[in-house]
Design goal:
single chain; about 210 residues; mainly beta
Length: about 210
């Protein structure tokens, strides 16, 4: 970055900010940038992507405009969904954060409505409850817990999974709710909201295979 201390009649901070924004725009419009769709919005943005660890890593570093990068954002890049999993680092010019590839979809229920399907023999209306469903991109991992009786003992997953997804209020994400995934039925044991701030971020679902339904 240039030294502007000897410049007269110039706001140094504004000059540095303008130069930084110019460099960012050149990079985002360059050959190495990618087109991304944020949270299914139809208008694409441009981002830069770097390897976080190695070429096979499922975690990458994303850089973009401050307004475009937030923990919990789902970025669709080259028809693949990525979930921003860390709080972005912000230097007032751009933001960078880690994102992880989504490997599944959570069958979320957004609403339930009554639909008229006919009338009974007495002419009274008959309704059927219809669920409004949406497949939410998510990250599914085996769930490993610690035995509280023996602190050093890890309990390997026995049909238990951990699901990370963008925070939102869904009708079927509550303790003891059940859902289907990978051809199995699961029951929600717990939900971790510690990575949600002001209703922005990611929530983590801990679920176990519903043996009774198997």
């Amino acid at each position: 970055m240039k030294d502007y201390s000897n410049y007269h009649n110039i706001n140094t901070n504004d000059k540095i900010h303008r130069d930084g924004m110019t460099l960012l725009e050149h990079s985002l419009n360059g050959f190495e940038s990618y087109e991304a769709f944020v949270d299914s919005y139809p208008t694409p943005i441009r981002v830069l992507i770097y390897q976080k660890y190695d070429s096979d890593s499922e975690t990458k570093r994303v850089i973009g405009h401050i307004a475009d990068i937030e923990r919990g954002n789902i970025l669709n890049i080259n028809k693949q969904d990525w979930l921003v999993v860390t709080i972005p680092e912000d230097n007032k010019i751009y933001r960078k954060a880690d994102m992880k590839i989504c490997n599944s979809f959570f069958p979320a229920i957004t609403d339930k409505t009554r639909v008229l399907i006919g009338r009974d023999d007495d002419g009274r209306p008959v309704y059927e409850e219809v669920e409004q469903k949406v497949n939410v991109p998510c990250i599914v991992e085996p769930s490993i817990s610690i035995n509280t009786d023996k602190v050093d003992q890890l309990l390997l997953p026995k049909g238990s999974i951990k699901i990370s997804l963008k925070y939102a209020k869904y009708m079927n994400i509550n303790s003891n709710d059940k859902f289907e995934m990978y051809g199995n039925r699961y029951e929600i044991e717990d939900i971790d909201y510690s990575k949600v701030i002001n209703e922005i971020g990611i929530m983590v679902i801990y679920a176990k295979k519903d043996v009774k339904e198997s």
